[in-house]
Amino acid sequence: xxxxxxxxxxxxxxxxxxxxxxxxxxxxxxxxxxxxxxxxxxxxxxxxxxxxxxxxxxxxxxxxxxxxxxxxxxxxxxxxxxxxxxxxxxxxxxxxxxxxxxxxxxxxxxxxxxxxxxxxxxxxxxxxxxxxxxxxxxxxxxxxxxxxxxxxxxxxxxxxxxxxxxxxxxxxxxxxxxxxxxxxxxxxxxxx
Length: 192
Description:
The protein is of the alpha+beta class and 192 residues long. It has helices at residues 11-14, 20-70, 72-76, 87-92, 108-126, and strands at residues 82-86, 131-138, 143-155, 162-163, 169-172, 175-188. The longest helix has 51 residues, at 20-70. Mean pLDDT is 80; it is low at 157-175.
């Protein structure tokens, strides 16, 4: 005996498949999700670049501080003091990389000038639209230096933002860039 289930719908009337509208709505939702994911990826890459610049600023400040430690006599004498300089001004002044202390011995002041030349070239080549200063805040023995690095980081769809001296933002026709700064202090003691 074959039983027939009356509650079971007929096959041909209820199973028609997806309509074209359902397929188009699904494609729209998937494309919006992919566009959102691409925007999030671009934003994270921009923030990653900013983090890299911050890390480089810390590294460069530590590099100069270690150079001061290696030349304590020059640091205590004030040979590492450097007025505020920008990367544009430094490179426009036909800055050449000093090699005075590579093949011959230097005085303490000569080694400090060599170290500053090497360091300024590294800063100008590494940080975008950079500026820096090395101020001797306490002279004598011990001697304290304040190292300040500034740069402009891209924000809001810019390629290279020019600095605006009146604010913390740089600007150009394509958008704005934000100016960042890192300050480090080093005390050098020359033991008698």
